[in-house]
Design goal:
Structural class: alpha+beta
Strand content: 15-25%
Radius of gyration: 26 Å
Strand order of the largest sheet: 13-16-15-14-17-18
Shape: elongated
Distance between the termini: 32 Å
């Protein structure tokens, strides 16, 4: 870009430059509102025609805003990086978020697994309400405005270079900048990973990104296509690579035409993707009867086969399995479907028991960022102060939400992290703007 051709937006209301927030998602809206609430002048820039487009799609349109899990469980949901979130969660956590939403007229309810949804079950309403709240505090929201560069002077933020669809190229002075551009998932909503490049140009290390909370593709395409749409509940899923267990989850999973999805699979997907992209052979295992160990399951089979011995095996299995998966069970175990239960030998019963405790699939790939709920990887946490969300490299720059190297499991954890880091950055930047001399 040629700087001499760039237009400069004049600042209204004051000669002092504003706090500028880049990205009008949950982290950006929260940061902008918090800073404005402290009296700072805030400009929120969004490259899409409307703010908060991705937020309006979350939770299948219902918006799983947070979880009622205790703090330690929240931190564990993000793996080793979770400790970084402790200061943000200690300042603004799920009870505070629910109270905040209630104050905006958005009552919440708790569902299975501690997942918290708005009573309205209307994600677009959440998005619109947060936008209205930010505007009510004086936040100026400019859409269709893309940030092409963050300008610094002596390792301190001084402004931005912009590209606006109507006004063309421009520069904009900034007192501080909050980078809240999100990740690379759901790119149609504007999350295309541009924030990583902005941070990288300023000297920040960016950990390689990959899709997370993403469905998995498997080689057994003929089987999963037959099972397409079948949901399994209360199963244990574990992942192995090169003979090593990478992780385990208990809960619900879903068969799709290409492979595996559902909460348990999505929560394990980051480990699957990392191992598979590293060239390792990865296998997904499913325990269909996790409440029963091998001995108890064998006793259950003996009892069922004895009490219903005259019935066909395929009929008896309906007491153990969803009917849709029974043909696959019989094929993979080699048991004749029309044999009576009383004719099943001890060896055949052992084969069935082993299958029920370990149905395995071989990973052949994963779905793209288009279908990923979040992005794993991002700006290195070692270069961000967790007490303020300010960059350790560039004064006046704050990094929040999915642009950071943070990715939690499914269940409302990631949205809470976005809101909490946005809240902390907004408070930090807003406080600094009120007394800039104290921070020099």
């Amino acid at each position: 870009m040629k700087n001499e051709e760039a237009e400069t937006y004049p600042m209204s209301h004051s000669l002092d430059p504003p706090i500028i927030v880049i990205g009008a998602g949950p982290a950006g809206l929260m940061a902008a509102g918090q800073a404005a609430g402290l009296g700072a002048r805030v400009v929120l820039l969004e490259k899409m025609p409307k703010p908060a487009l991705k937020l309006g799609l979350t939770g299948k349109g219902r918006c799983n805003v947070t979880n009622t899990a205790p703090l330690q469980q929240f931190i564990q949901a993000f793996g080793p990086q979770g400790r970084f979130l402790q200061p943000a969660f200690s300042r603004f956590f799920s009870p505070e978020l629910r109270e905040f939403l209630t104050s905006l007229g958005l009552a919440t309810q708790v569902e299975r697994g501690g997942r918290v949804f708005p009573v309205s079950e209307d994600a677009p309403l959440i998005a619109r309400t947060l936008v209205s709240w930010a505007r009510s505090l004086g936040v100026e929201i400019r859409t269709r405005t893309r940030v092409t560069d963050i300008i610094t002077k002596q390792d301190y933020v001084s402004g931005l270079r912009l590209q606006n669809r109507e006004k063309g190229e421009s520069t904009l002075d900034a007192a501080q900048v909050i980078l809240a551009t999100g990740g690379a998932s759901y790119p149609g909503t504007g999350s295309t990973g541009e924030g990583y490049e902005l941070a990288r140009r300023l000297g920040h290390a960016v950990q390689p990104i990959c899709p997370a909370l993403v469905p998995i593709e498997v080689t057994e395409g003929d089987i999963v296509r037959r099972l397409q749409g079948l949901s399994l509940r209360n199963v244990r899923v574990w992942v192995e690579a090169q003979g090593k267990v990478l992780g385990s989850e208990f809960g619900e999973m879903l068969f799709t035409h290409f492979g595996l999805s559902g909460p348990a699979i999505l929560s394990l997907s980051q480990k699957v993707v990392r191992a598979w992209e590293a060239g390792q052979e990865v296998n997904v295992h499913i325990d269909l009867k996790p409440a029963l160990d091998a001995q108890k399951l064998d006793a259950r089979l003996v009892r069922d086969f004895r009490d219903r011995g005259r019935q066909q095996l395929k009929t008896v299995l309906k007491g153990l399995l969803p009917s849709g998966i029974i043909p696959v069970c019989l094929e993979q175990t080699g048991l004749p479907r029309d044999r009576s239960a009383s004719q099943v030998s001890a060896r055949e019963r052992q084969v069935l028991r082993t299958w029920l405790k370990d149905v395995s699939f071989t990973v052949s790939g994963h779905r793209s960022f288009v279908e990923a709920i979040v992005t794993a990887g991002g700006v290195s946490l070692r270069e961000v102060d967790p007490r303020s969300m300010q960059s350790k490299l560039i004064q006046g720059l704050y990094l929040v939400g999915e642009v950071l190297d943070l990715a939690g499991t499914t269940g409302g954890y990631n949205l809470q992290a976005a809101f909490s880091t946005g809240w902390l950055a907004g408070q930090s930047a807003g406080t600094r703007s009120r007394n800039p001399a104290a921070h020099k």
